[in-house]
């Protein structure tokens, strides 16, 4: 579905990406992890068509929906209206867009909050609403840029478990940017470990842990070995 082949990108005198290559298969969950400033968001922008590489080739048979780090919910729009925004921007009539968004509310734990405003929701619920806005567009691939990074540990763990279930149920293809090694292991089929800028691929790690993965897997020797391998790369300049 998605293949990056020798992707490089420079901004002025700042070399950000250096011949990055990896692929993502349909239905796969792949995480990108690397130091801050390594170019992970730049890669997402290239995949989403918001930027172009200086060299290399992107081959992609599909469409993307992009969820940024912050929920970016409009404070004056109801949760229902926020969730339907992407569909409305694409030209779908408002009534139809909001009806389609409402169909997803029970699965996202938001039923009964259709007419609420963003300030009336918890941080975790706001992130679910932002993901609903992304998913309802029914694109083939979800790009999730640190969606849980600003949440407390307990809420983050809860949403990781919830996202695993949603991904498995709907057979989504998903890519995740994260700085949380345990989050990457918990959610992913494979993890692409990037070097410091200019980013290159240090290792692509298969996560062969059985699913569904609960918090008990964290204490397993296999989880610990994966964590050690990733941290070893991240701590090497």
Overall description:
The strands form 2 sheets. Strands 5-6-7-3-8-9 form a 6-stranded mixed beta sheet, with helices on both faces. Strands 2-1-4 form a 3-stranded antiparallel beta sheet, covered by helices on one side. It is an alpha/beta fold and 237 residues long. It has 8 helices and 9 strands.
Strand content: 15-25%
Q: What structural category arises from helix and sheet content? A: alpha/beta
End-to-end C-alpha gap: 32 Å
What would the average pLDDT be, to the nearest integer? 92
Radius of gyration: 18 Å
Number of helices, counting only DSSP H or I runs of 4 residues or more: 8
Helix content: 25-40%
Q: How many DSSP-defined strands?
A: 9
Shape: globular
Query: What order do the SSEs take from the amino end to the carboxyl end, as H and E?
Result: EEEHEEHHHHEHEHEEH
Uncertain regions spanning at least 5 consecutive residues: none
What is the spatial order of strands in the main beta sheet? Answer: 5-6-7-3-8-9
Biggest sheet descriptor: 6 strands, mixed
Summary, kept brief:
This protein is an alpha/beta fold and 237 residues long. The protein has a six-stranded mixed β-sheet, with helices on both faces. The chain has a three-stranded antiparallel β-sheet with strand order 2-1-4, with helices on one face.
What are the SSEs and their pairings?
Blueprint: E1 2-11, E2 14-24, E3 29-33, H1 40-47, E4 55-60, E5 64-67, H2 79-83, H3 85-89, H4 94-104, H5 123-135, E6 141-145, H6 153-170, E7 173-177, H7 181-187, E8 190-194, E9 201-206, H8 221-234
Parallel strand pairs: 3-7, 3-8, 5-6, 6-7
Antiparallel strand pairs: 1-2, 1-4, 8-9
């Amino acid at each position: 579905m998605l293949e990056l082949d020798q992707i490089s990108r420079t901004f002025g005198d700042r070399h950000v990406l250096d011949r990055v290559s990896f692929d993502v298969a349909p239905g796969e969950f792949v995480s990108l992890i690397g130091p801050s400033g390594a170019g992970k968001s730049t890669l997402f922008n290239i995949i989403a068509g918001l930027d172009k590489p200086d060299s290399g080739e992107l081959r992609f048979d599909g469409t993307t929906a992009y969820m940024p780090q912050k929920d970016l919910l409009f404070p004056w729009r109801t949760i229902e209206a926020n969730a339907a925004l992407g569909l409305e921007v694409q030209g779908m009539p408002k009534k139809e867009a909001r009806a389609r968004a409402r169909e997803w509310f029970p699965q996202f734990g938001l039923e009964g909050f259709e007419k609420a405003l963003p300030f009336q929701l918890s941080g975790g619920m706001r992130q679910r609403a932002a993901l609903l806005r992304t998913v309802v567009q029914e694109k083939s691939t979800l790009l999730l840029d640190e969606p849980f990074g600003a949440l407390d540990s307990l809420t983050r763990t809860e949403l990781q478990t919830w996202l695993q279930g949603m991904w498995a149920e709907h057979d989504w293809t998903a890519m995740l940017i994260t700085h949380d090694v345990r989050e990457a292991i918990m959610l992913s089929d494979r993890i692409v470990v990037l070097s410091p800028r200019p980013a290159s691929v240090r290792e692509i790690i298969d996560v062969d842990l059985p699913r569904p993965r609960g918090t008990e897997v964290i204490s397993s020797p296999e989880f610990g070995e994966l964590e050690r391998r990733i941290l070893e790369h991240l701590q090497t300049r």
